[in-house]
Design a protein that fits this description.
Strand content: 5-15%
Order of helices and strands: EEHHHHEHEHEHHEHEEH
Helix content: 40-55%
Length: 206
């Protein structure tokens, strides 16, 4: 193994406190929609924007949701770049240790600017070689994993994520999956499981 590719939400951080406030600010200002909760966000973490719209706002037309989603994106990225999210236990230390032996990457189902906001506040970009998302490519998570691997000449990688969608993406890309059981989702099929980020050190550095 030469590389570790990470999901972001539910794997490296929990941004819901800031994101739900940002989204509710947009809803209050531009719509008559009900306010969202952190549980609402937990239920859609890991999905692409279109799928989030179908689950949370099924009565809105595609164009109506696209307009609101654009405002969501702008406000949440600005807030996250200023306030950050809640990093999971020892993430900074774990990434520093892993990056001494492996190349690290992020592939997340987010919009363009989101990973950059994570980097801007927490200053963890120094540990990562590259990142990708469907906001930039329009591709599925599995396809973005493949793109990252091809672009960076990765021969053998694992993918770390917290949802069934992450497991399916790793399977699609033909690489092992590490289930972050402390995150937002429930996964039955996996190659490894960890109950905190330190588990990656225990598995792959010892």
């Amino acid at each position: 193994m030469d590389s570790i590719i990470f999901d972001l939400d539910g794997t490296l951080w929990d941004p819901r406190e800031v994101v739900v406030e940002a989204w509710n600010k947009v809803l209050k200002q531009y719509t008559d929609e009900r306010m969202l909760t952190k549980q609402d966000l937990k239920n859609v973490m890991g999905l692409q924007q279109k799928e989030i719209g179908q689950k949370l706002f099924p009565h809105l037309s595609e164009q109506q949701y696209a307009n609101v989603a654009g405002k969501f994106s702008a406000v949440e990225c600005e807030r996250l770049s200023r306030e950050g999210g809640r990093l999971y236990e020892d993430v900074e230390r774990v990434l520093a240790q892993l990056s001494e032996k492996y190349e690290l990457y992020i592939v997340s189902n987010c919009q363009e600017g989101y990973i950059e906001s994570f980097y801007a506040y927490h200053e963890l970009d120094k540990h990562f070689i590259d990142f990708e998302n469907p906001g930039r490519t329009g591709l599925s998570k599995g396809e973005n994993i493949e793109l990252i691997m091809k672009r960076n000449h990765i021969e053998s990688a694992i993918y770390v994520g917290d949802t069934a969608g992450d497991q399916q993406a790793a399977q699609s890309a033909g690489i092992p999956f590490v289930y972050a059981a402390y995150g937002f989702g429930y996964v039955e099929g996996y190659d490894y499981a960890i109950d905190k980020p330190q588990g990656l050190v225990d598995l792959f550095l010892r």
